[in-house]
Design goal:
44% of the residues lie in helices and 20% in strands. The chain has 522 residues and is α/β, with parallel strands linked by helices. Strand 1 and strand 2 form a beta hairpin. Helix 3 packs across helix 4 and helix 8 packs antiparallel against helix 9.
Length: 522
Amino acid sequence: MPVACHFSRLSAVFNATTLFSDISGTLFTQPQGLVGPNGQGKSVLFTLLAQRAKPAEGYVRWERAFYYLPQRGPAPAATLAEALGISDILRAQQRIDAGDTDPDLFTLLADSWERSARAQRLLNDAGLGHLALNSDCRCLSGGEQVRLALCLAFMQRDAFLLLDEPDGHLDSAGRRWLARQLLEHRAGSLVISHDRTLLGQMNTIFELTAGGLNEYGGNYEVYATEQARKQQALQAHEVRLTSQLHKEKREQQKSDAKRAKRQQQGEKLRRDGSQATILLDGKKERAEGKMAGVAQRNARVICQLSAERRQVSEQRQIKDAQMLKMPVVVPSGRLMVHAHRLQLPWGNAQAHSFDIYGGEHWHIAGCNGCGKSTLLRVLRGELPPTAGEFSLHGRVCYLDQKLQLLDPALSTTEALCRYAPTVSAQTWRTHLGALRIRGDRGLLPFGSLSGGERLKVTLLALTLAEPPPEILILDEPDNALDLDSKQLLERALHDYRGTLLLVSHDEAFVGRCGITHTLRLE
């Protein structure tokens, strides 16, 4: 397999904090995935690989051309043709259609015909073929804009692709299209993703953790199996170390008791005067020397075992289960959401009628641009419907994709205290630690955390809100979450007894959230 890139001993520092150090690896011309906890520095590593930033240490050496697509996508373009880099071809075609016979125009079209045809094929496959090349990009939905950016990436046929969470806003069809394109892209790719289905098609999985960069030769199933094996091995090793530590401490206690008993016997003999003092002093010196050697050995072994167990415990903490419990709500079974012939202002022309009762979990499904987020905003009263009526009965909490519940300028702990003043800062810090936001990260501005960390903190705010929300409306909450945090949210939503309205395109995630009904927008 041809090599695409070598990188060696890379280190990155952010806000005087070392994100990672001594990172080395080799990328090949095949589909590869990068996973790791939120905030560990995956996107930072991509900026180093893409040579958009310089590492604190180390180097990156490319053996072929590469193309980098960050989470926020490329710079906005006015039209589809401009976004795909074929606006000159479109203008030449328009001039020829208008009667211009300049030979340079025909030369341009002849030389660029394959590029233009490839762009059109990609648009068709991506579900954007119905759009004219001179369409305004500002009219596209978020998912359509992501697909357009990916079309531009896949036009770079000979470039290795660095794609940072490209599946974030894609619907189910878009994710299947992305997976097919990655398999067909011969120049290779490295993709940051938390989608288990997409990762299941990778040839190699890299994992970035606090302990460094680990490589797994296989897809997500191989990675998950190896992770489970490692976790079991760490648990078993910690149990053995704990047992050995307890044994050494018992031996130490026995030695201490034996030394104390001998001292008492020696003192008794001195008082009785039955043995010469010089003989007793000699015995005492020999006994103390022997006991001191035993005590030193015990202390040394206990120190070594304690240090080793601490190291194993720290390794386990990287993968320890996170803790997030949704607020306790008693399902009433009463009507919570009512809609009658509701028509949305855009995205979907159908009239929708539905009733949602207490404790039901609804999945709002549909392709990009069909109006799922619009429906949620209408139900929240942020947008007026075109026609129809609706009503919500109960305390509502709505989390949109921008996560605007907490003040981004405040430190994370301060933002939580501002949201729920009755909860102490120490309590918030404890709960943040259970979400792996430990130490000084809880003092960083909320807006500076990674997307996944911001979402976890926002959900944490809801868990201690008083009174708790009875209706929870979540718009693609799983987009920025790492794999472990996504599983954490799955369990929390599955156990939530209130009413849930959920938009998500991750089929594996939706299937684990206790969904009882599906409302599909066409």
